[in-house]
Amino acid sequence: MSEEIVLKTEDLTKHYGGVHALEGANFEMKKGEHVAIMGDNGAGKSTFVRQITGVEQRTRGKVWLYGEEVSFIGPLEAREAGIETVFQTLALADDLDVPDNLFLGREITKWDWLGPFRFLDYKAMRQATLEGLEKTAVKIPNIRNTIRNMSGGQRQCVAIARTATFHSRLTIMDEPTAALGVQETAQVENIIRTLKEAGEPLILISHNMRQVMDLVDRIIVFRRGRICANLDIKSEDISGEDVVGYITGAKTQPEYSDAA
Ligand SMILES: Nc1ncnc2c1ncn2[C@@H]1O[C@H](COP(=O)(O)OP(=O)(O)OP(=O)(O)O)[C@@H](O)[C@H]1O
Ligand SMILES: [Mg+2]
Fold first, then answer.
1. N or C end: fewer C-beta atoms under 10 angstroms in the chain?
2. Which atom of ligand 1 lies at the shortest distance from residue 16's CA?
């Protein structure tokens, strides 16, 4: 398979007992592409992300990252392979402070020439943390506080700051601005634009039509666990109203007609 294909899934499926949360998802995205996933609550969007990132083990199907077949046993393994994910239910360590959360698994060390011991460079990590948070515009009174004591929006910004701090081969954001104020939302949208300019591919899950229409190249619509539309909003004349039609099932694309 071509290296130009960042992510490909084939027949990706997840059943929770009798609940068919995700059914036969065939998905592909190219280098540099920004793709949104839309769909009603419970449509299977987060389930799709969890199967790709190894948070759960899939019922069936295959996943390739840059042409290499992958089957991650956990989210840290996906992260090591270059997938940076902002999960909808945030995967932050409650008992750690902000720098520790940002650098979990990626600690900066110093005095490496001293031999087998690793010395963590807290100063460098604190500095990088402040720079990352500045990009999200969120105000966190003291980054040494543990995540447990933070507001939902502050937590969300810590997770997003992580994606703005490290280069990744693929970034996935599951409703990153759901808990954010107007200013913070605008900043996160700027982070997304920066990723686009840097050619870093992104999957954005969002219910915010304006945001999606503004930011991405393509929209994939999920409905009742299945992909039901693939909308190239950059080169075709597709309105927000059209997209809503696919989300509600009022409109269908012939190639996905079995999904309706
Ligand atoms: N652990 C689980 N056990 C049983 N059912 C689950 C589990 N996780 C998700 N589901 C079900 O799978 C379906 C898809 O859920 P999912 O979280 O993927 O939806 P979503 O599209 O992300 O929705 P939202 O927009 O509300 O975040 C839902 O019907 C949900 O109830
Ligand atoms: Mg979800």
1. N
2. 4
The CATH-assigned architecture of domain 5-259 is 3-Layer(aba) Sandwich (3.40)
Whether 137 and 183 have beta carbons less than 8 Å apart is answered as yes
- Nearest Cα residue to atom 24 of ligand 1: 41
Identify whether the C-beta of residue 105 lies closer than 8 Å to the C-beta of residue 81: no
* DSSP secondary structure of 58-123: -SEEEEEETTEEE--SSHHHHHHTTEEEE-SS----TTSBHHHHHTTT---EE-GGG-S--EE-HH
Question: Tokens 């720079």 identify what position?
Answer: 131
Instruction: Give the distance between the most distant pair of CA atoms in the chain.
Output: 66
pTM for the full model? 0.88
Give the chain's length.
Answer: 260
Return the closest-CA partner of residue 223 out of 202, 187, 251, 197.
251
For the record, the structure tokens of 257 come out as: 């007609």
Residue 121: count other Cβ atoms within 10 Å of its Cβ. Answer: 17
**Tens-digit pLDDT profile for residues 29-86:** 999 999 999 999 999 999 999 999 999 999 999 999 999 999 999 988 999 999 999 8
CA of 42 relative to ligand 1 center, distance in Å: 5
Distance between CA 95 and CA 58 in Å, rounded?
A: 30
Closest ligand 1 atom number to CA of residue 19: 5
pLDDT bin (cut points 50, 70, 90) of residue 113 is: low
